[in-house]
Amino acid sequence: MSHPVILALTAGEPAGIGPELCLQLSGEPRSAGIVVVAAKALLAERAKQLGLQVALHDWQPGEAPQTRAGHLSVCQVDGCQSTVAGQLDTGNSQYVLDTLTVAANGCLNGDFDGMVTAPVHKGVINDAGIAFSGHTEFLQALCGVERVVMMLATDELRVALVTTHLPLKDVAAAITPKRLTQVTRILNADLKTFFGIQQPRILVAGLNPHAGEGGHLGREEIEVIEPTLDQLRQEGIQLTGPLPADTLFTPHWLNDADAVLAMYHDQGLPVLKFQGFGRAVNITLGLPIVRTSVDHGTALDLAGTGKADAGSLHTAIRVGEHMARSRRAAKAGEPS
């Protein structure tokens, strides 16, 4: 357990605030080893623009990352075409995806204990002719797993999603017994592995208002959700629900829960972001690697101004380090 954790930190969209958030880390103490996966020239240019004195060191697998104030280790990724803060360039799209690939492969081969991602801009990647729906789906394909789960968390609340980036009109059809079973099993297993919770207690939201109100406001609870939860309870998973989403997020229920499972993106995440925006972390469960991310976007209007807040990045790093240590303890059969 004394072996230091090494996390890969992808710098995200070059025109956004990701590069400067990475640079901000150099002036603060770090318990985990951080390797920024990016174009070194991009970081140097942004540091010059912001008036930051940061020594950038080339990093190779097997080396201990820099932890001294004013120093950062960088895993060089080529192909960054333009580095103008606030100005998107489709020519950088492949470079952005290459940083994710390098970081993820480094996790898979053991060079890194996990990866933390600064925000990317989905629109400009798609404008470049590359189909991209987000970090979560990209890493799912790269790691070759059938199902992943998006979970956002603060110190007080964890919310996982059955469906993620779908139009609202498609959500009901996507909530199938297979999907709900896979997502719930992943959530239960990873709460144990990555968070050291021996018997997770999970609250499950219904899909419809009032959880369907006995079938009068929709039958998805009766026909899909309730039977599936009953089968999962027989496996020993502690599930409460389906509960009406408008009363689930209250102390009466949350005080005795380790996580909430929401049916769709805007059912659970507005509550969490209202409760903790700027200090929340986006976590991908179901991968063979640790992956956390900030809870915000590229903030093009703030890029290059020095006003970007690194609070969410600090949370993502702290949670990533904790998850890596918990998984290490679980593999060794030790308490986390």
From TrEMBL:
One of the record's GO molecular function terms: 4-hydroxythreonine-4-phosphate dehydrogenase activity
GO biological-process terms attached to the record: pyridoxal phosphate biosynthetic process; pyridoxine biosynthetic process
Residues that coordinate or bind substrate: 135-136, 273, 282, 291
GO CC annotations, alphabetized: cytoplasm
Pathway stated in the Swiss-Prot or TrEMBL entry: Cofactor biosynthesis; pyridoxine 5'-phosphate biosynthesis; pyridoxine 5'-phosphate from D-erythrose 4-phosphate: step 4/5
Primary localization: cytoplasm
Family indicated by similarity: Belongs to the PdxA family.
Miscellaneous comment text of the record: The active site is located at the dimer interface.
Enzyme class: oxidoreductase
Subcellular compartments: Cytoplasm
One Pfam family this sequence matches: PdxA
Keyword Transport among record annotations: no
Full protein name: 4-hydroxythreonine-4-phosphate dehydrogenase
Keyword annotations: Cobalt, Cytoplasm, Magnesium, Metal-binding, NAD, NADP, Oxidoreductase, Pyridoxine biosynthesis, Zinc
EC number: 1.1.1.262
InterPro entries: PdxA, PdxA_fam
Function: Catalyzes the NAD(P)-dependent oxidation of 4-(phosphooxy)-L-threonine (HTP) into 2-amino-3-oxo-4-(phosphooxy)butyric acid which spontaneously decarboxylates to form 3-amino-2-oxopropyl phosphate (AHAP).
Cofactor binding, note field: Binds 1 divalent metal cation per subunit. Can use ions such as Zn(2+), Mg(2+) or Co(2+).
